[in-house]
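Q: Could you write out the predicted structure for this multi-component system? I'm mainly interested in how the pieces pack against one another.
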Amino acid sequence: MSVAKKMAGKGKQIAISEFFEKNKHFLGFDTLTRSLITAVKEGVDNALDACEEARILPTIRIRVEKKDSERDIIRLSMQDNGPGIPMKALENVFGKLLYGSRFHAIRQTRGQQGIGITGVVMYSQLTTGKPTAVISKIIGEETAVKVDIGLDTRKNKANKSNQQRITWMENDELVIHGVKITTDLKAKYQRGRQSIYQYLRMTSIVNPHAEIFFTDPDGETTHFPRVSNNLPREVIAIKPHPAGMHLGQLQRMLKDSDERKMTSLLRHNFCGVSQRGAKDLLTAADIDEGRKPSGLKTEDVSNLLEAMIGIRTGANGKPIKLLPPPTNCLSPIEELLIKKGLSKTIDSRFISTLTRAPNVSQGNPFQVEVGLIFGGNMPADKPVEILRFANRVPLMYQQGGCLLTKTIESVDWRQYGLDQAGGRGVPKGPAAILVHLASTNVQFTSEAKEALSDNEEVAIEVRKAILEMGRGLRRHLEKQKKRAKTKEKFELINDILPAIAEKSASILKLPVPDLSGSITKIMSAVICQEETTWDIEAKITKVNVRIFNYTARARSYTILATWPERNAEMTDNERGGRKEAFGLWAWKLETLDPGQHTDITFSLTGLEKGDWAETEIFYRGAGDIIGASKLDEKMLEEIRRQEEINNDIEMSEPSVLTLETTTMGEVGGGSISTPQVENDSNDEKDTDSISVESANQENTSEESAEKTNNSLSDEVMSKTADLFTQQTLFSGGDEQ
Amino acid sequence: MSRRHSPEETKIALHGVVEEMYKRMMKGEPPTMTLPVRSKTNIGFDKKYGVFKYGKKKTIRDATSLGSAKQLLRALHVVEFIEEMIDAGKSSTLREMYYISEAWGLGHFNSQNESNNLAEDLEIVTKCLREDFKLRPEEDGARIIGNVTINELNRRGEWMRINARDDVGDSGYGLPYNVENEKIQFLEHDVKFIMAIETGGMFDRLVENGFDEEWDCALLHLKGQPARSTRRFLKRMNEEWDLPVVVFLDGDPWSFRIYASIAYGAIKTAHISEYLATPSAAYIGITPDDILAYDLPSDDLSKNDIQALKAELTDPRFADGMWQDRINLMLEMGVKSEQQSLAKYGLDYVTDTYLPEKMAEAGL
């Protein structure tokens, strides 16, 4: 069976077309300008999801034409290179509301409830009376299907017409696979903050693997290039977790179940429930283990629910201990890719991105990612741009009412170097803040899915991530200031002082004085100048570290520099040196006599522009160095210890690793989140959890299993690297 | 008292500034320039001259910060430039020097204020006058009307005899930037006193009303904060002809400062106060009392006004009890008035009523 057919087969239907005809504002079709964006959004979401599922790097083409300006009729066409939709499934995909393979599965997807593209077909029909033209071609088939799809909203059924097989050509080239829809709708095209352009720009930031072309009504085409050839990690469906259950849902599950015993039902249909967990739940709910699930009475069901969500406790008076849901169902964008996405669209001086470890809220795994970009051409006197995303989908409306915005507003940005009246609200400055929530169950304030509703666990995670970004920004700004000061000093001794010497000598007609003494007195310090630059020609990052001894004594130091060991190769390192720790290289310098300077240079390959813009410099030795920090040996030991643990982890079997989360509903404290990675080798090893995991293994290719492994160790390593940037942990040798 | 220096003396004095820097560098130290602190915290009353002069507080400008080092480099360029002018027998305006500095590379000025201040710094350190440096101000000299006769050396090198009543139009005789003896000689006069007036409007009012003829006085338009040449001219008339000086200004914090610069010496030019200030000059008004007594139209004090008044309370030139009372009264009233607010009572009121009353009070 082809991928496309398999995907289509999972669908079930829910007939509520009529309801939605009356409530089109919920669907984002309330104004003419918004309708167009919503239509594009639904199409793009579908395309990206389909490509991802079929493991195809997406190329999407959007074209907007003004068909009838007087009556505001716009023709929208959207084409993707996805797997195509089988002929039989076409009318379901485009003609039934709430049709979607995702509605019944628990995992992170873009369109969560399948209202999507059918809404576009319906809106088009309601406003122009015309059907939507669809062309679909499946991989391996000779011809494409072309069909016009209309909608009978009363029967929740599609009206197909003009169905035919065609040879699908675009720009004189045969299309191999994909879907193209062309639809006329009453809508208005506009530019600005809430525009198709902005929506696609945002989409491109969080989908660095996608290539998007957009042709506007003037015929101008914008190209959002692909900056990564890695598809997002394949998301895996998980079974529901007891802590996220609702009564109706639980009742339905029990009723529909073929299981003969309650224990097997709990173990086979939920995640996080071990044999022992299942027994404990049933004991707490006063239900006999052997009872038949479909025979449970309403009262029993509600008792069971209470045990699941922790109202009914175990014998020890505590909620029943359940394992957290697996988090590999989430597909974060990952720090480096967010960085690439941001830097391709926004010019800046500073970028910091952070992917938090996954967490769980009411049985739903979620993960928060943030990015902060500062400087460049962004206006300094306007509110910062807030880029909100849920499961890689841009959120463009209702910014003020969204949890993500509120969390940004609750931070006092003044301490991190941005303007903010009264320390509340959206800060001002040349910056953009990106927040992405990946979750199996994104909770929106309304069906329009534009603003996230309040959720304390999510807010805490977002806040922690933002604060860490903020600290990074503050460090960057402080460093800039220091750099500017050092630069001034160098201008003084290199340019101004020699000019003073020459001019005074020429006026007095005396020989030019030797300045070394004056220079030492003026600087009276050892100074480190670090320069990290991007070599456009060679496509490498070059790092130069120059140490000047402007003191009256000879000095000797070991200089250490951070480098992105995870992503780059170090080359042209003529001095050699040695690895001090992961991501930290060390060079022992020869003795520097007063007035002397020396250089350390190396290049980094395998990176792209903007990936590595600042190199942190540390030193070991007597006497402060301006522009570098004294290395804290205790800290280094700690980092090494961490590394060893990580190495051990890498040796062991990765599939039974569980990221420890605290009891449901609680979130671990501590500002530096070092995930406690635990090798789950307890005697009470959870058989069920293993079976879930191994089931997942069946579905994933060897490659993606390896990826999971890598990304886990990456995560640990990124935390290690974070320890370096926690400047407070190092004694501040560069304070003067 | 500062005195004029010959070109050779001027050069030697300027070389002293350069030598200080040079010697420090030879000793392996950062170069420096030592000069008095130029703020109200470092001015004191000089009993000998009856004016306020700089005290003993020195500030050392050394090349340990980029800004100061640039100042030193600029000073060197200015010294070199002055020497060139002396040797070539030329002179330039301060503004011209600012533009010429464009060619000085790292030592160029960023604003004219910088070049003006540096010229003053050099005056202070060398005890020379900017006239010795061949530097002319851009500043607008004042004008005078009244029966005084002077000799001015014109640009053809001839002495011109000018009577500031009969040989001039309604705008009076305009003062050149250099009012020293080499340029202006005081010949004769038939006036009893000189009245210095802040605003052009009031000056014209008194001229139109024939105040100078009726009261046998000369009227001098200060044009706001008076230029050095204006204060010097006033000082010379006061000293050489023994003429009393009365000062008629707006009633606001800034007018107090104008009076102080005329009578006590300005902070910026405290190094040559004895040469510019007229200690016997009398302040006529408008005083804060006048605003009340004459019920004058007034404006609320601005934030800046209030700040200025508060600063004046700690200015040694206003330490006198009478000034403290005046300043505190104005702060209390919270208002200020212009000279021309007297027009509330008609155009002649100032000459017929206000000034006669105020001068009688002052004993004139």
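A: Regarding packing and overall arrangement: The longest helix of chain A spans residues 456-508.
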